[in-house]
Amino acid sequence: MEFLQILFLVLSGVAFLAGVPLNGYILFFTACCVERTASAVWFWSRAMTDFIFIIFLPLRFTSIFILDLDWAKMLSSTVTSFHMFSNAFLLTALSIDRYILVTCPEWTQNHRTPILVFTLIMGMWVLSAGFSLRYGDLWESVLSPANIRMNFQLDEGRVKAAIAIQFLVGFLIPFALILIPTIYIILAAKLRRKRLIQSTKPLKILLGLIPTFFLCWLPYHVFSFLQISATYPLNLLDIGSTFACVLTYFSSCLNPIFYLTMEEEFLRYQQHTLSPQTTDNSELELAE
């Protein structure tokens, strides 16, 4: 178990050292160097959730090596849960936003404003916080090693309900809602039926974010279900749960890599808005 803790410490340290500067740069760039567009607000919000998640990583170190800090365990698990739900909700909203951008260009030109997007983001963050706080005392205990779980007196019904809710609301339903508009956009781009799809770069970014979300969070949910089963050795479950937890942190490092590919688009938008020859910015907004 000591080897497992050291391995978790090393891998999480790599995720922390990579994730903090990457997400910090995205936040600074979108806040200071990019025009206030709806797309910029979407990517700023996802970078903010990743930054909050990764900045609390040292607290998880503390909760692992100092076992009697129950407040640290609960706070760390609540932040993890908040990141899981908000990440799923925001990616779903981003996919639907791209779908509306393609299918309803007139509506988006008149109503798709940064204020509207920011309001939606605030609502999704509140909803994520509600789901996270409702079962905040259970998230950590479910995926904790066996020697820690023995200190928790868990209600089996509440544990099963929490795992089902986090899987359905935080993964399966959002993932299905993400795929539907994305498949439509892919087909529209492939068939070139939509005049508005002038650049495939945003589509490539979306296709990078979706597998990252799926691959980094699916093991977390799988081992959540396995932990409440008595048919698997606890030591194997502990190892698997540890790596599943590390993967969730690496998702916060991979997401900024895709955001950085938007930098050229943001700079091009800024150059056009500052150019006196540019009179129609709506095309650039649609090309985001």
From TrEMBL:
Family matches, as Pfam families: 7tm_1
Protein's UniProt name: Chemokine-like receptor 1
Protein family: Belongs to the G-protein coupled receptor 1 family. Belongs to the chemokine-like receptor (CMKLR) family.
Keyword Transmembrane helix applies: yes
Membrane spanning stretches: 6-29, 41-61, 81-101, 113-133, 163-191, 203-220, 240-260
Keyword Transmembrane annotated: yes
Keywords noted in UniProt: Cell membrane, Disulfide bond, G-protein coupled receptor, Glycoprotein, Membrane, Receptor, Transducer, Transmembrane, Transmembrane helix
Single Gene Ontology MF annotation: complement receptor activity
Ranges where the G-protein coupled receptors family 1 profile domain occurs: 22-259
Membrane topology: Multi-pass membrane protein
GO cellular component: plasma membrane
Highest taxon listed in the record's lineage: Eukaryota
Organism, scientific name: Chelonia mydas (Green sea-turtle)
Entry's Gene Ontology BP terms: inflammatory response; phospholipase C-activating G protein-coupled receptor signaling pathway; positive regulation of cytosolic calcium ion concentration
Subcellular location: Cell membrane
Signal peptide segment: none
PANTHER family: CHEMOTACTIC RECEPTOR, N-FORMYL PEPTIDE RECEPTOR 2
